[in-house]
Design goal:
315 residues, alpha/beta, Rossmann fold, N-(1-d-carboxylethyl)-l-norvaline Dehydrogenase, domain 2, 2 domains, 8-stranded mixed β-sheet, binds nicotinamide-adenine-dinucleotide
């Protein structure tokens, strides 16, 4: 398929790589020329990590990637021959609305438009006549390692369009989850938001340190999840316990204040995470490049092991 990718930032360049590796031909653009320029190099670096880990075959050289990815200066050039548009521009409604108007003016009516928006209801931003062939296909960073893609249409989206994108994602070896209707954050991000609210409460109110939380997550919560997910784990525990836990209200959702004093203090100190060398943790003066590489290598090793072990899923 011929795919036009709008946005070459954190997600756009990585989605271009994912779709190129899936056998598609990519045209990509960004409103910042520097970002567009840099994007192919970032794709080639990520490709190298995948090749070294044996996730893609050796024929996927940097040159081969460059031959299927064209960087384009204008929307018109980007849309040449496009059958699918992957929209991965900044998460601002005005910017998305403006881009959709440009696409509406330039693209053929049969093009499929897939937005990678994290939380926005993009459908009201889209010209009405495009809604039938518009949907959200939402990925997780980095999408060349995280396989999940949330897919959701609007009320007018043609079911055949949803099926085309679902199949395209599945054929790339990824895992599409088609939701019945839109809700901001989809499934995994909503679960993650709930976890984030809870752990920040535990830290802010002095119940636990960041290290305690991660020890509990890594050594308790996480071990079963890759094999069982959450719902199958409940079946193994038994629904009587689930019923009792719900009835006893062991869990009270934290009061949502919209901020965490701990996070605010860390950010004010310039501790914004791995990119600044420190966040909740001190990353020991190691460069972001080195840390991201180590993370990616460990994630790839885990994926290999999990593929071998397999999952337990109910029907
Ligand atoms: N960062 C994540 O983890 C993540 C995960 C899933 C989805 N998303 C979603 O993906 C989208 C992109 O996020 P990101 O993290 O890559 O942001 P980013 O800031 O890294 O990249 C966005 C890019 O869009 C470009 N841009 C802005 N207007 C444009 C236009 N009209 N045409 C072309 N390019 C334009 C910007 O120059 C920028 O390079 C957002 O909708 C975001 O919610 C992000």
């Amino acid at each position: 398929m011929k795919i036009a990718v709008f946005g070459a930032g954190l997600m756009g360049h990585a989605l271009a790589l994912v779709h190129a590796l899936g056998g598609h031909t990519i045209r990509i653009t960004d409103s910042q020329p520097g970002t567009l320029e840099r994007s192919l190099g970032l794709m080639q670096t990520a490709l190298g990590t995948l090749r070294d880990a044996g996730e893609v075959d050796a024929s996927w050289t940097s040159e081969r990637l460059a031959s299927v990815v064209t960087r384009c200066a204008t929307p018109a050039e980007t849309l040449e021959g496009a059958e699918l548009i992957v929209e991965a521009i900044i998460e601002k409604p005005d910017a998305k609305r403006a881009l959709y108007a440009i696409i509406d003016a330039l693209a053929p009516m049969d093009v499929i438009i897939a937005s990678n928006t994290s939380y926005l209801d993009v459908f009201p931003l889209m010209p009405e006549r495009r809604l039938k062939r518009t949907l959200i296909a939402h990925w997780y960073t980095p999408p060349y390692l995280v396989d999940l893609c949330d897919i959701v249409g609007n009320e007018q989206t043609d079911p055949a369009v949803i099926e085309t994108v679902r199949k395209l994602v599945a054929d790339m070896g990824k895992v599409p989850v088609v939701m019945q209707r839109f809700i901001p954050g989809y499934i995994a991000n909503r679960i993650q938001s709930a976890i984030s609210l809870e752990v920040n409460r535990l830290i802010d109110e002095g119940y636990a340190t960041a290290k305690d939380v991660d020890d509990a997550v890594i050594h308790g919560l996480a071990l079963r999840i890759p094999i069982l997910g959450h719902m199958a784990k409940a079946d193994f525990t038994g629904l009587l316990l689930t019923q009792a836990a719900l009835a006893n209200r062991m869990y009270e959702p934290p009061v949502v204040q919209g901020n965490s004093p701990t996070v605010d203090r860390l950010v004010a100190e310039g501790r914004t995470g791995v990119m600044s060398g420190k966040g909740y943790f001190d990353w020991g003066g190691r460069s972001p490049d080195e840390l991201f590489r180590e993370r990616d290598q460990k994630l790839l090793a885990l994926k290999r092991a999990l593929r071998e072990i397999g999952h337990m899923e109910g029907k």
